[in-house]
């Protein structure tokens, strides 16, 4: 049976899947840093419907999610495998077990929700998909 079309090219590409793996690893790094950057940026720009801080202590920020800046500074990107990673708040709960990141994300009885994780994930979905599409397109062009 005679093959027509791009069979030879496709066959050669499939023999070099390790190059695709390397491109996808690069995509994971790019995406992780993008999400981390945008999550931190959300602290500066706020979010839709965020209530302003009612009390601003002397020497502290007026930005809704920034008081001392410790929560914002605890956001980071960590690679967990070749093709996986985690962007999130790398911070311990305080001595009482209170999770300040969860309190801001979901709100409490005394504090309105000021979500920063879920909105960032939604905002980054399209750009992250584009990162991986580009990596695959570039691999196909090699």
Describe, in plain words, how this protein is organized in 3D:
With 142 residues, this protein is mainly α. The chain has one domain (8-141). It contains five helices and two strands. Strands 1-2 form a two-stranded antiparallel sheet. Strand 1 and strand 2 (84-89) form a beta hairpin. Helix 2 (17-45) runs antiparallel to helix 5. The two termini are 28 Å apart.
Q: What's the number of domains?
A: 1
> Poorly predicted ranges (pLDDT <50, ≥5 residues)?
none
Q: Which structural class do the helices and strands define?
A: mainly alpha
Alpha carbon gyration radius: 21 Å
Spatial shape: elongated
Q: Which strands sit side by side, in order, in the main sheet?
A: 1-2
Q: Indicate the percent of residues in helices.
A: 40-55%
Largest sheet: 2 strands, antiparallel
- The overall pLDDT average reads 82
Number of H- or I-type helical stretches:
5
The helix/strand order is: HHHEEHH
Report the portion of residues in β strands: 5-15%
């Amino acid at each position: 049976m005679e093959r027509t079309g791009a069979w030879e090219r496709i066959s050669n590409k499939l023999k070099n899947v390790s190059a695709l793996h390397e491109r996808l690893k690069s995509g994971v790094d790019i995406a992780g840093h993008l999400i981390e950057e945008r999550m931190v940026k959300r602290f500066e720009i706020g979010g839709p419907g965020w209530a302003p801080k009612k009390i601003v202590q002397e020497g502290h920020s007026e930005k809704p999610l920034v008081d001392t800046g410790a929560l914002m500074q605890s956001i980071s990107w960590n690679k967990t495998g070749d093709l996986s990673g985690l962007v999130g708040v790398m911070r311990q709960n305080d001595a009482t077990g209170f999770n300040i990141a969860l309190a801001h994300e979901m709100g409490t009885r005394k504090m309105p929700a000021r979500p920063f994780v879920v909105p960032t994930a939604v905002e980054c979905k399209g750009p992250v998909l584009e990162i991986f599409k580009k990596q695959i397109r570039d691999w196909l062009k090699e």
